[in-house]
Amino acid sequence: MLNSSLASTKVNAATPLLGQANATLSEREFAAMVDALAADPNRREQLTDLLREDHHFYNQRGAATVVRMRGWVLLAVARIGLADDALVFVLEELDTGVDAYLVAAAAYALRSYQNPNPSIAPFVMRAIAQIRYHDNPVSFEAYGDYAVSGGSTSPVLELLVTLAWLGPHARDVRAEIEVIAQSRGLSKKAQIEANRTLEIIRGTDTAEEHHGGSCCELPGGLLSKFYWSRRSRRASEPLDSIIFEDQDGESVSFKEFFHGHPSIVVFFYTRCENPLKCSLTVTKLSRIQTMLESRGLSDQIHTAAITYDPAFDLAERIRGYGKNRSVSMDAHHRMLRAPDGIDALRQHFKLGVNFIESLVNRHRLEAYVLDGSGRIAASFQRLHWDEQEVVERAVEVLTERDVDTASVDLTSPELPVSPAEVVGVSLRGHPSVHDQTAPANLRTPIDRSPHNSLHQAKPVHSKWQRSAASVMGTLASLAVAFFPKCPICWAAYLSVLGIAGLNQIPYSPWLQPVLGLVMLINIVSVWLRGRGTGRMGGAYLVTAGALAIVLSRIGSGWEKVAIVGVILTVAGSLLSAFGSRKNSSASRSYRESANRVVSNREDLLT
Amino acid sequence: MTTKKSAPKTTKRRSARTSISIATSQRKVPKERVAAFAEAPLAVCETDANLQAVLKVVRNKEEPVEVRLAAIDTLATAAFSVVAFESCRHDYIATLREVAKDPNAEIRESALGLLAGEKDGFAQEKLLEGLKDPEKALVPPEKALQLLSYDVHAESYEAARNVVENPPSEVARQEALRLLAADANSGPLFEKLLRDKDEYRAVRQLSASALQAINPDKLQKHAREMLLDSSEYEDIQATSLTALNQFGDDEAVAKDKLLLKSIRRMRGKAASAKYKRNAKQFLSKYES
């Protein structure tokens, strides 16, 4: 049980403390404030807000102090029940935490969550794997208490208890728990807890199935991936003048490096001692570079790793750090430090980081995709991000940029047009990297992200262009409407010119070549159609009909042959038309089917 | 030529289990128990009974100090095998925290040293408390600063600056400066110390090393100025030569005629062998 002595502070006491400058707030006062917030159900959000790394209360505190403060907040969250909006902080601690107290507190807090489900179990198992060899004793008795006796708990114990709490929802990781239980590495108490957990999970094998519905999904937005539509992105002007120094000591401004192409940006610092954070992040950036290279995009999408700690992370240090993690470094891919710009970067990116003097005291995982104007198009925070997903997001941003350029091309023909600009436009007129006509390096499997709002770009046309296009479109439509498009049409025109006009022909000699030309066109048309469909009967009839009409014009007494000729021509044309209709129908069906597929992909995107 | 005879075995090699039983037995003499502990690390975490027996010795204030220290050393050695020690770690850390406040100074120092190596928050808190309030100090300030320097994330820079400003002893002051050598904000302090001819040579050397880590460009600038300063100490100039030779901008140094001329002149007059040696290396590299 948690000590309630500090919780006895009156609820109202928290109000002035929240606005208090952090430097004047002692740890004890902070703990009292947290207890007061936890005692007030209306201030739950303020309590969750204290889990943000960049909260001003953590400014200029040592790392160990921040651990004590955050741990106390997690324990307070546990008392009132873990809400959806705080779940990500708890899972983050299990995903990347290496401090025994915080991992234990996170496991403890997780058990107050109202919606246990199977998707949580892997986080707990990952935490056990990471913390088991640093299973230090911890105490939840009072703020800042360190365990010095055997009666204390530990992160592994708390995690095992949490697995038992998950019960049937931990079935999927039962085999992993069995391996740990059989490893004989656990302490006596942990061994007992592991066996108890296994018994509970085995006992549920025959019990009723766990809750149905959305049992296996984490709450929406939890994944900490945020995408911004082009209209909602913040301009990068405040950053444009920031001067970076790269791994070789070369200076480059934000505008110079981040404008004109999408970029993938991660943050790190070389003195980070959590192998699951900075070191892994920079290693993953290297993998991203490999992916871009293999798709031929390394010149089109830039990458950068920016240090949180520019005062200590000099050019040589960041170069060595990147080199040791196989990061490629050249003009398009750089390790960067901003000696005078870290505050502006913190503000613009809303970085999840805080400092004691110039040294980081805690930070979250964060990676960003910037568009060609240096604006944040996507961010990946807290939980481990997938390199493939980050690359796909950057490719989508790249494609959206290309379509913008294509739009400009309509009025600026002198600008170069890349292949990506003339293809990759979906049926809805929006750019789509899923379009199979796009270049292979821009294609991707279907995106299942529910957050995609990137494809709202529409080409921008000038006013005169729109008017001209409208008139031309009308004329073209009329021309197409009156143009004879099939054998029946040609037969109809022949009938008008032939039957109705036969008597007029002797008196209108200019009609004879016109009639001859129309017949010739009809014969060619039907012959071509016949060859395409493999049915030549119509062509033979039309040819015979044409010969009959010609004969009727040779001598007197042959006029009635013209009627036979017209009949043969109409019959041949009808035969040709019906013969090819089946194929036309199949072709239309295929097109409709294809359209549906692309349309479905577009639906997934929007 | 003398031949080395192998020493006769005075004691038969014991099994690890036997070592534990001897080491933890109060009926044995301290010397034998200390020797037994030295043989016991592999057995400490074999069984919970072994672990508890050793921890009991560590906690027992009635035990001879040398035996308790030997028990702590044995545990520390065993803990080095992280995987094999997994089941024992919890009680080991808890016991170290407990004896960190032991009446015996050696036990305290040993326990806090091991905890500081683990970057333990409890140890850091106690060490910082002691620096702020000497009455609460568990170890001398220089030791506290040394142990705090194991973790750059311990909030020790402010405490170290206070020690530099109001040093309880010169040893503590120099230990505080060593700790600040990783603090990027302490560059100006080290520049000042480096150029202060009244400062201890050890402090000036330390300042040069610190600047190389914190702000190497500043070190290059000061090194050049000190080499041009004929009133500067030769050992400090020798250090400056090394700094320019090893870490300097080769192109800029090679073009610096004034500097090369000054070093040539000083080399002929210098009494310090170290200066002469460094100057020779320097000139052979840049004079061609």
Taking pLDDT < 50 over at least 5 consecutive residues as the criterion, the unreliable ranges of chain B are 1-5
Specify the helix fraction band of chain B. 55-70%
What is the subunit organization of this protein?
A: heterodimer
**Mind telling me the C-alpha Rg of chain A?**
36 Å
The interface involving the most residues is between: A-B, 41 and 33 residues
Helix vs. strand class of chain A: alpha+beta
Q: By helix and strand content of chain B, what is the structural category?
A: mainly alpha
Number of strands of chain B: 0
How would you sum up the global shape of chain A?
Answer: elongated
Give a structural overview.
The complex is a heterodimer of chains A (606) and B (288). By secondary structure, chain A is an alpha+beta fold. Chain A has 22 helices and 10 strands. In chain A, the strands form 2 sheets. Chain A has an 8-stranded mixed beta sheet with strand order 1-10-9-4-5-6-2-3. In chain A, α9 packs antiparallel against α10 (188-203), α13 (275-294) packs across α16 and α19 (487-498) packs antiparallel against α20 (511-533). Chain A is elongated. Mean pLDDT of chain A is 77; it is low at 1-11, 210-214, 404-437, 444-467, 469-481, 500-507 and 580-606. Chain B has helices at 16-23, 30-38, 41-44, 48-59, 65-79, 89-99, 105-117, 121-132, 141-148, 157-165, 170-180, 187-195, 201-214, 216-228, 234-247, 250-255, 257-269, 273-286. The longest helix of chain B is centred in the first third of the chain and has 15 residues, at 65-79. Chain B is elongated and about 75 Å long. Chain B starts with 15 loop residues before the first helix and ends with a helix. The chains are: A alpha+beta (606), B mainly alpha (288). The interface between A and B is large, with 41 and 33 residues.
